[in-house]
Design brief:
243 residues; alpha+beta; Translation Initiation Factor IF3; Alpha-Beta Plaits; 3 domains; 6-stranded antiparallel beta sheet; 3-stranded antiparallel beta sheet; 4 helices; 9 strands; elongated
């Protein structure tokens, strides 16, 4: 009698264990039955803000004379910019940088034997920030005309920005989300099922690169400022329950 009872208990335990394992497997399968997709949003746009800068300097053995010459150069540059259509209030001049320069003399062993003062070098930079991108871009190309006025003006490459980037980003997120949803629906359809509820949504990398360039994409996102015409890309990762 005890033997039969033991067999019955063992059999019951096996059935219960099988039921528990089967339920766990089904639940596990059900929870992993998801569709994960990545959608892409892309927009071409033209920068509407330009930031351009340049620098100039004067040198003299006399500090007062150097200041006077730099002041004259600054007024000439200001007049040139204003005459080319840049308002005076858009010209931002930096503080003056003063450097004492010396001519160092060395002996045959490389030891310093004399340091002769050669004068003061004063340098100043000017920056323009404007919505008139084409105008400032053109001036930056021909500003070397100032050389004819006796001014050594060093022009930097302009930087280009877009002031409506926040609005553009929202449009791109919507586009990327729609693209991801279409992809997920197609996957579910091809698998003979249907798309369930959205379980998770994450925004991926946001990139801005120059149009038609070989610029590399970065895993952390890139932000091009050297090209006037740009392309923005954004990804959205969606996870759906599959039915």
């Amino acid at each position: 009698m005890k033997s039969h009872l033991s067999s019955i208990i063992t059999a019951a335990a096996v059935v219960v264990a099988a039921f528990i394992l089967g339920s766990a497997y089904q639940n596990r399968y059900r929870h992993s039955d998801v569709i994960t997709v990545t959608g892409l949003g892309s927009k071409d746009f033209t920068s509407d803000l330009i930031v351009w800068s340049g620098s100039f300097h004067k040198k003299s053995i006399d500090l007062k004379q150097a200041y006077s010459e730099l002041d004259a150069a600054r007024e000439t540059i200001k007049s040139y910019m204003v005459s080319n259509g840049i308002p005076a209030d858009q010209l931002i001049f930096s503080a003056i940088d003063i450097e004492q320069q010396f001519d160092n003399r060395y002996d045959d062993s490389g030891n310093l034997v004399a340091s002769i003062f050669t004068g003061y070098r004063l340098q100043q930079s000017v920056q323009v920030e404007s919505r008139e991108v084409d105008k400032v871009e053109e001036i930056s190309r021909r500003v070397t005309e100032l050389i004819n006025s006796g001014i050594e003006f060093y022009s930097n490459s302009p930087n280009y920005y877009y002031t409506k980037l926040a609005e553009l980003k929202i449009e791109m997120i919507a586009e990327a989300t729609k693209d991801a949803q279409i992809r997920a629906s197609k996957i579910a359809e091809n698998a003979g099922g249907s798309l369930g509820d959205l379980k998770k949504a994450d925004m991926g990398v946001f990139q801005i690169v120059g149009q038609n360039s070989s610029e590399d994409y970065s895993w952390g996102g890139s932000f091009n400022t050297t090209s006037k015409n740009k392309t923005a890309n954004i990804t959205v990762n969606l996870e759906y329950q599959s039915r």
